[in-house]
Amino acid sequence: MNLIIPEQYNPILSVRETEKAIKYIRDTFQEELSSALNLTRVSAPLFVTERSGFNDNLNGTEQPVSFTMQSLPGEEIQIVHSLAKWKRYALGHYGFQIHEGLYTNMNAIRKDEDVDNLHSVYVDQWDWERVIAKNERTENILRQHVREIVKVIKHMEHEVWYKFPQAVYHLPDEVTFITSQELLDRYPDLNAKERENAITKEYGCVFLEQIGDRLSNGEKHDGRAPDYDDWALNGDLLYWYEPLQCAFEISSMGIRVDEKSLVTQLEKENCTERLKYPYHKAILNQELPYTIGGGIGQSRLCMMLLGKAHIGEVQCSLWPEEMKKACRQHNIQLL
């Protein structure tokens, strides 16, 4: 069992008060985000067909929950891991124009996840995607969007403070940018997670860029599917989280692959067979818009803003009996 128990932990809010705070954060944040990035809320699928190529392959090892439908004989239906690819298709299908975008409530099951304070097999996030021009596929545009999201999160801290002043967790004002290679150069003797902890503890809030490709030591900082983010134009938004003494990832985002980087990255991962899927063909044929997008964890945001010790305090999921027992003994109130 991988569980961090903060010393003398006090959840401050009761379960019912926490539920009120969760609703307030979820309702308010999505309005703030949509206003900042010019996003329209849309409905999104819980499952897709395997042959569509829409599902997120994550690190390439996780298996989606799948089933069959009586009405679609011969089709494998998969519960989504995320909507990273579907969103880009939807922007084109619905006729969104440059600098317009969408967001949706994404619910996923990642059954192969190792559960702990921050990880659950149930994933809930705001998935967002925005149309950009091809000449806007730049580091500068990526960083502009990161700063907007950091600003919204900081504003949410103030909003929550008005409602729940005794419970709000205070966040840094600014974000620091660093690439995964620069991070390795800075801490060559640490592993990837240790490097994240070191840099985030130093600066408070960090956007770690360029994740997915191999670094100078021959390793990847972290796995990324090769067919949605451009590995040269993506990253993770990390906060130092004092209650757990670790880096806390709140968002993963990036500028999406174009027709060239898609092929390059698929070749690196030895999975060019994906080019047969309708989604991938549409990118090759330049039938889909150029976009930037990402996901922002709903439960994670609630957890961070309320200073909770375990993601199970802000979402309902399944946990090992040993973990549930330890949480009860240390005043961690799993929903």
UniProtKB/TrEMBL annotation:
GO terms for cellular component: cytosol. Its EC number is 6.3.1.1. It is found in: Cytoplasm. The keyword Ligase applies. Its main location: cytoplasm. GO terms for molecular function: aspartate-ammonia ligase activity; ATP binding; catalytic activity, acting on a protein; transferase activity. Residues 23-320 form the Aminoacyl-transfer RNA synthetases class-II family profile domain. It comes from the Bacteria. This is Aspartate--ammonia ligase. It is an enzyme of class 6 (ligase). Gene3D superfamilies: Bira Bifunctional Protein, Domain 2. The gene is asnA. Belongs to the class-II aminoacyl-tRNA synthetase family. AsnA subfamily. The keyword Cytoplasm applies. Coiled coil: none annotated. Keywords: Amino-acid biosynthesis, Asparagine biosynthesis, ATP-binding, Cytoplasm, Ligase, Nucleotide-binding. Pathway: Amino-acid biosynthesis; L-asparagine biosynthesis; L-asparagine from L-aspartate (ammonia route): step 1/1. InterPro entries: aa-tRNA-synth_II (IPR006195), aa-tRNA-synth_II/BPL/LPL (IPR045864), AsnA (IPR004618). One of its GO terms (biological process) is L-asparagine biosynthetic process. It catalyses: L-aspartate + NH4(+) + ATP = L-asparagine + AMP + diphosphate + H(+).
